[in-house]
Design a protein that fits this description.
The protein is mainly alpha-helical. It is built from 3 helices and no strands.
């Protein structure tokens, strides 16, 4: 179930990005606020909503729902990337005894 919601969430993310990019921006109208005609459109009402605006609203609501569902499902999961107890440390190496030099034999 978790994987299915993740797949739907990713598809909804791509859809909302596409819908937002398809819509006409309001940035072109901002120039009319500084002396251009029709400045009521900049800060006034939006008028009738377009089909892209309605679709964006629906996709945004689905995105909100999948985000909430994923957070609830992730809270119920008990797995963790951190182990409960850390790995046991290796035993410290005991230093090796230095080699005992062989008794010197007198040279004649």
């Amino acid at each position: 179930m978790f994987i299915l919601v993740v797949i739907v969430h990713v598809l909804v993310c791509l859809a909302i990005v596409g819908l937002v990019l398809l819509q006409a921006g309001k940035g072109a109208d901002i120039g009319s606020a500084f002396g251009g005609s029709g400045s009521q459109a900049v800060f006034g009402s939006m008028g009738t909503p377009t089909i892209l605006g309605k679709a964006t609203s629906v996709v945004a609501i689905v995105f909100l729902a999948t985000s909430f569902a994923l957070s609830m499902m992730a809270h119920k999961r008990t797995t963790s990337i951190m182990p409960a107890s850390g790995p046991s440390a290796p035993a410290p190496a005991t230093p090796a005894a230095p080699p005992v030099p062989a008794p010197a034999t007198p040279q004649k």
